[in-house]
Amino acid sequence: MSKIIKYIFSSIFLLFFIFFIYLNFFFNLNNYKNEIENLISEKINYNFKYNGHIEVSYKSSLNAIIPNIEISDIKTKEIIVKIQKLDTDIDFSDFLNDKITINYIVASNVKYYGVDIDNTIIETYSILKNQQYPNTKKRQKNFTNILNIRGTGNINQTILVVDDIDLETTLIKGTSSGEINLINKNANIRITSMLKEDEVTKQRYANDYPDDLVGEIVPIIISGKLDNPKVNVDIKLLIKKKIVEPLQEKAKEILKKTIEEKIKIELPF
Fold first, then answer.
1. Is-contact 233 192, C-beta < 8 A?
2. Nearest-CA neighbor of 55 among 32, 22, 30?
3. Which residues contact 26 (CB under 8 A, 6 or more apart)?
4. Which of 40, 94, 228, 242 has CA 20 to 30 A from 9's CA?
5. Please, are residues 107 and 86 in contact by the beta-carbon 8 Å criterion?
6. What is the pLDDT of residue 210?
7. How many helices (H) and strands (E) does the chain have?
8. 237 and 226 Cβ atoms separated by less than 8 Å
9. Distance between CA atoms of residues 152 and 165, nearest Å
10. What's the chain's Rg over C-alpha atoms?
11. Structure confidence by residue, pLDDT tens digits, 133-152
12. Which CA distances in Å does 5 have to 10, 16, 92, 102?
């Protein structure tokens, strides 16, 4: 009896081993490019295309490195995101319950079309401080250049939930979290960011670099349709604390000194 059990388990192990060897050495996903694009497009409800050779490894989860990704709207064909390289590890163990767990996702050189987050920060700062648009208006583009992204998340039925996403643009570094509805294509994402202080960044923005925001948390909220999102940079309180209140105190001191000189008495305030 024990020999039979050992034989059965040995056979099962051998079959799994052969299957593993087949997946890793003989089954080439790159032969199924169209099927992969269609499957992902159907799941995320956007057109998904890539150009290049996919690197895949199979263990307890699926690890894939995908080059030159382009995601666009199914109806309008407008490009929403371009990604030079995507490295992701995905767990499909709960796939039957319409849930996909993203163990990690790392992306480099990402272009998010429809809004320039960095320029929005510069514009908001300049308008609140100087009541005018900055010179970066001349350099405005229709996308945000995200240098690096790393984080986790999951797709639960029709909702993509992103958690603790670290990101870096040309102007800021920060973390983000939120949700994207893959059916109605609405996003609600909050980014907690801080300005980069290196000389390259300062030289890039020159006189438009928002010095008063250095060392401060800059909250950013992205909401609405993914192809035409609204970006709210909430720095009114920062401007008040860093610029308005110091100016008020300075004006108060000047007024106090002027009155004291005029009437030759020391005021109690």
1. no
2. 30
3. none
4. 94
5. yes
6. 87
7. 6, 11
8. no
9. 7
10. 27
11. 666 555 557 889 999 999 98
12. 8, 17, 30, 37
